[in-house]
Amino acid sequence: MPTSGNPTASAGLTGESQEGSELKAGLHPAIHVFEATKAIFATRNAEELPEVIVAAAVKVMAADAVTLLMPAADGSLFVAHALGLPDDVKKKTRIVVGEGIAGKVAESQIPAVLNGPTNGGHGRSRSSIIYPMVSGGRLLGLLTFNRSSGAAPPYADDDLDTAATLASQVMLAIENVRLIRQSAMNDKLAAVGQLAAGISHEINTPIKFIGDSTHFLKEAVEDLQTVLTKYREVCAGVREGADPAMGFEEIDALEQDLELDYLQEEVPKAIERSMEGVRRVAEIVTAVKSFGRVELKEKSSADINQLIQTTAVVTRPEYRHVATLDLKLGELPPLLCYPSDLNQVFLNLIVNASHAIADVHSKTNEMGRITIETYLEGYGITIAVRDTGGGVPLTVRDKIFDTFFTTKPVGK
């Protein structure tokens, strides 16, 4: 063959092939980091993020096991997620800063490469990287990468560069999710703040008729005490030999003067009005407390219909002058969810519907309608929300689920 007699050409081809292989090998970590970054930053749920980080780290670092440790309230580090650790070990593991190898790395904030035999021996070597995630001198967590299968070579100092790149993306993602959650909580508190004036008015109305009813009952009790005193005087006089007829006439005259028949009819109504006012105030306060409760970090079982009813009470000041709210709530099983997040969703839907209807109401002066319907559909729960507002413009419908997107002017 012609090429076999041309050593120079053969060597040149071989050299190009080796360079190409080296280039591809050098690109692999960068490609894995790029893919990992996309996966990590696509995750907005704080509870799912640790699992996504660990899965991405396994690929980037070619690891058999990866552990993500995060700071606990007591200053120790707990296992947020791990691949290669039994569940019972994950729950029990606590790294005290300054104690043990990982604790000393956390204390020094300097990454470490460790190579040596596995605890089990069998001639296998164990290779690990412990990488502290530090921002502004503050320890945000630890990433540990372990190789023990022998399928990949032991970690070297060069691998610290890849670990550093990955750790920087992980820290950015954690901070990004924290900011999103903080923004959501700020939005929630801002919404409650905006509703505060309306809620105070909602409370003021039942408080007023509680006050009026209580004032009426006070006067009624005074009149009844006057009648009761007269009854006792007449009874005492009859016992001492007085003419009963005279006493009865005095009682009849007093009852007519104090309108006892009227009191007998109106006192129960006043008590009922007071009880209704108390119930209404309690309903509003309970709704506000429920809506404004501290967000749970874990999912909990919730009654979707109750969440909707609670939000309806809180948002009533927003819609009551422009629309009626029609709740068609079907029988639903408890749902494992984040109740606080759903409360915020329902609040946004009702408030946005109210604002949309208000724009129409200002032109037509007609009351609108907001309808919320819940029902079981197969194995899922359907929540349908409709309103008689102007609708979402076609030009922005593709953007309504973008983070922070809004069509409202600043301050509204």
Produce a short descriptive summary.
This protein is of the alpha+beta class and 412 residues long. It has helices spanning 7-41, 49-60, 87-92, 100-108, 159-239, 244-257, 260-291, 304-319, 339-364, and strands spanning 65-71, 77-83, 94-95, 112-117, 125-135, 138-147, 300-302, 323-329, 335-337, 368-377, 380-387.
Q: What fraction of residues sit in β-strands?
A: 15-25%
Stretches where pLDDT is under 50 for at least 5 consecutive residues are 1-27, 120-125
Class by SSE composition: alpha+beta
What is the CA-CA span between the terminal residues?
81 Å
- Helical amount: 55-70%
Summed up, the helix count is 9
Q: Which overall shape is indicated by the principal axes computed on the Cα atoms?
A: elongated
* Main β-sheet, spatial strand arrangement: 3-2-1-6-5-4
Q: Total number of β-strand segments?
A: 11
Any idea what the radius of gyration is? 36 Å
Largest sheet: 6 strands, antiparallel
The H-and-E topology, N to C, reads as HHEEHEHEEEHHHEHEEHEE
Give the overall pLDDT as a whole number: 80
Can you describe this structure?
The chain is 56% helix and 18% strand. The protein is built from nine helices and eleven strands. Helix 1 runs parallel beside helix 5 and helix 8 packs parallel to helix 9. The chain is elongated, with a radius of gyration of 36 Å.
Name its key features:
412 residues; six-stranded antiparallel beta sheet; three-stranded mixed beta sheet; 9 helices; 56% helix; disordered N terminus
Question: Topology of this protein?
Answer:
Blueprint: H1 7-41, H2 49-60, E1 65-71, E2 77-83, H3 87-92, E3 94-95, H4 100-108, E4 112-117, E5 125-135, E6 138-147, H5 159-239, H6 244-257, H7 260-291, E7 300-302, H8 304-319, E8 323-329, E9 335-337, H9 339-364, E10 368-377, E11 380-387
